[in-house]
Amino acid sequence: MNFYKTLSKFSLNSNSKVVLFGKDYEPKTNEEKKWDHLYEKISTIIWVSYRSNFPPILETIYTNDQGWGCAIRTGQMMFSQALLFTLLGRDFSPQKCNNQEELKIYKKILSYFLDYPSSCYSIHNICSYASENFNYKIGKWFGPTSIVQTLKYLYEQKHSDQLRIYVSVEPDIYLDKISKSEKFVPIFFCISTRLGMNSLNTIYAEQLKELFTFPQFMGFVGGKPMSSYYFVGCTGNQLLYLDPHYTQTVVQTSNEGDFNFESYIPKGISQININRIDPSMTLGFLCKSEQEYENFLERANIFIEKYQGKQIFSIHKNSPNFDFDDFIEF
């Protein structure tokens, strides 16, 4: 089944260009199929939404996360996408894949996020860690920084050999804090920032759109007050995002652990004017190879020089000579 054909059509100017994960998409001349290539690409993104009827979280009565779990879901989306790109590449499509080994890896990635206590990055384990370490009360809203900190910790306990994750609560990257290894290990940067007081400061709008042209950019977790979205692209002043605010029944698994992955295929894409988003967000950048890492640093330095003094984030060779308790990295 071609799931991308079920994607809801969104209104785009016929001359508009869409940028998605660092790649440009131009409208086709055929009006009927103008954006089919874009819809097909969107359908390969892992979509994580609210779920119902999962086992209770810890000792609570919560068996669904409707109304409070959206930031958890968007964090799961960005992190699962980073794992997908790392292990299977940016061109992988579960709908078109005939390689059983690759499909097995894809389903293995999804299995980490299933809504069961046994799944590494399940809502159960996320809430458990956050309640123990952040005084988080289950059923309350997560912030974008808290979710990436939590996922970082859970990842460190299970799969730290596949990916290095650099998490910072400040919009700064300190290169000397990146762990060294003889063989290059992919790096996933999660950079939290606030670009304004109560709303996005307009001086950052063009910068934020420009980040989508970076091949390493994984989008960002952000949204509106008390509503979190996963932003993956832009067109003009419109940001494209996946919306977790749809409740689906928990995925059932067989005795062998197999399951149907159709509910993780996006059924639509939403858009919002960039000036309407909340200023608090966590940016993601993935460098799979040493070449991608060097290219990221080169692009970032040009970007920082261009917006000198008002740039969204900064890169420093060395970290400050004082204890930076809020900096988390491994």
UniProtKB/TrEMBL annotation:
Keywords: Autophagy, Cytoplasm, Hydrolase, Protease, Protein transport, Thiol protease, Transport. Residues 37-298 form the Peptidase C54 catalytic domain. It catalyses: [protein]-C-terminal L-amino acid-glycyl-phosphatidylethanolamide + H2O = [protein]-C-terminal L-amino acid-glycine + a 1,2-diacyl-sn-glycero-3-phosphoethanolamine. Its EC number is 3.4.22.-. Pfam families: Peptidase_C54. GO terms for molecular function: peptidase activity. It is found in: Cytoplasm. The keyword Coiled coil does not apply. One of its GO terms (biological process) is proteolysis. Cysteine protease that plays a key role in autophagy by mediating both proteolytic activation and delipidation of ATG8 family proteins. Belongs to the peptidase C54 family. This is Cysteine protease. It comes from Anaeramoeba flamelloides. The lineage of its organism: Eukaryota, Metamonada, Anaeramoebidae, Anaeramoeba.
